[in-house]
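Support request, priority: normal
Reporter: lab tech (M.K.)
Component: structure prediction queue

Hi team, I submitted a job for Protein EARLY FLOWERING 4 domain-containing protein from Fagus sylvatica yesterday, and the status page still shows it as pending. I've pasted the exact input below so you can check whether something in the sequence is tripping the parser. The sequence length should be 132 residues. Please let me know if I need to resubmit or if it's stuck on your end.
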Amino acid sequence: MNTPDYCSSSTATDSSMAHISNNRRTQTQTQTKTTTTEESGDAEMWDSLNHNFRQVQTVLDRNRVLIQQVNENHRSRIPDNMIKNVALIQEINGNISKVVSLYSNLSSNFSSNFHQRNPRSDSNDKSESPEA
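Reply from support: The job had stalled in the queue. We restarted it manually and it finished. Here are the results:
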């Protein structure tokens, strides 16, 4: 008469439980790696934004000083100071162009980072517009 082999059944159950446990551990490790990669990507993106905003602020601070100097020169009514204002105003104008360029780059970089993080298929990007 055959008796059931409870030991081998138990071994099979243990083996299958170990396999499930290993799969869960692998999934958790993969999720952790993905989260860490995303977080480092986020950190890089925020560092880049922070760096760009600092550059903009530096140029704006310089313009503040230049504008104060232009105002002082204008109030003095001294001809040499008025001549100096031409160069100061040209520098202010160049700095404004720099700020526009920096904001444009900042916007492009942020947009590309955002779209790399949140890829969508072309069908989702198409806007639905009613056809006449």
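The two ends are 83 Å apart (CA to CA). Residues 70-109 form one domain. Let us know if anything else looks off. Ticket resolved.
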